[in-house]
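explain this.
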Amino acid sequence: MSDKPLKDAAASGLYHLPPPRLATLEASAERLRFCLIKADIAQQISIESVLSQLGSAFKFPIWYGANFDELYDCLCDPDWQPAKGHVLVINGMARLRAADPDDFATLIEVLQAVAEARRERQEPFWILIDTPARGISPFPEA
């Protein structure tokens, strides 16, 4: 995989990335010196525990209250994890989708809103999930 897809801030957003493609993408993010953070939520059942796990994995500030509004606020904060670009990888989404489809849909909406806000600021900001979801495109091939 070339680094070209990650360089295109205009195309950044929320995408589905099948796990077999992860290692190649990680190497590309490292070459570009992007902030790469992975979160594994597979063991979490409730949305509260999912949001708490995301806060821990993404190293949110102490005031993070593990709710959708604060997830959005933290991820949109330009002072959170300053970097040339960001790649966030969230694994284990299938369990949340099976346990609570409504909360899964809300989480997807929040992540899409974050990606859109960052894209509008022309920041390379990629959120990649391991589970296909309605309206979420596959990560572009290079």
Remarks:
- The CA atoms of residues 78 and 118 lie 9 Å apart.
- The chain has a mean pLDDT of 93.
- The beta strands are 14-16, 35-40, 86-91, 125-129.
